[in-house]
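For anyone still unconvinced, we reproduce a single protein record, the chain in one-letter code, the fold tokenised, and leave readers to judge:
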Amino acid sequence: MPAGRAAVVFTAAAALLSNSAIAAETPDELVARGRAVLEAAGGCTCHTDFDDDGPPLAGGRPLSTPFGVYYSTNITPDPETGIGRWSDADFARAMREGRAPDGSAYFPVFPYTSFTGMSDEDLRALKAYLFSLAPVRRENRPHDVWPPFSWRLSARIWQWLHFEPARFSPDPSQTAAWNRGAYLVHAVAHCGECHTPRTLTGAIDRSRWLAGASDGPEGELAPNITPHETTGIGRWTATDLVWYLQMGFDPDGDDAQGLMRETIEHGFQHVPRTDLEAIATYLATVPPIENRLLDHADHADHADPEP
């Protein structure tokens, strides 16, 4: 059998075996895997208003942006104020296309521009976990944003200009660990949403991928996490990064603050070490970018958002 055809047959067989394993999952196993997906996403802490002692994932958290303040939504399975009436297709469309069940466009403060890369299996498991939680009746707050940034039509135009749904595609020239890390960074953990500068229209500046941003959510500084030697994390070892994501302490002993602390406590510290090592493997290969405005040595003076 030709090598190319053998590879195709092997890939197809592997996919069938994977799908069979997923189909054999019990409801409890699916929910447990969904919780692991949520933790790899940093716990989705933007949907919890910690300052107001809000119920977990019930929304209402103010997210400051250059365009105004957006309030996170209730993603508990309450049928009236949450997502309890969403079908699997509704959930996948929201996460991958940035569209509500009624077809309206979500504002890009919701990181569907990253979640679009998530796999069918992870989305299915994540929804199962969210729907296993106790529903919380909590009305969503209207956004405090001036027109035209408050118009859903504007969000749809923004999507037409800046967003194209696409699944994560593994790089066959890289290792399994590298591809796993790339998938987590690009899609599930949505690191680029905070750690990459944005254009004047709010789109991620892909030419400065992960180089840090001064206007992250809630006005926090998002540090440079490229492997630049002086302004990024180029001097960190893989062990340093894993320790940081598990414990919240960097190599200098400074502790994480703000959104980063929350995402470690509610998410990354529960992620398997192999996944954290995979993230470190991928980040070590990102092109290093100098960003003197966000010198990593000054991190202790700022609140770190999620990577």
Observations:
- Residues 1-21, 296-307 have pLDDT under 50 and may be disordered.
- The first strand starts at residue 62 and ends at 65.
- The beta strands are 62-65, 68-71, 144-145.
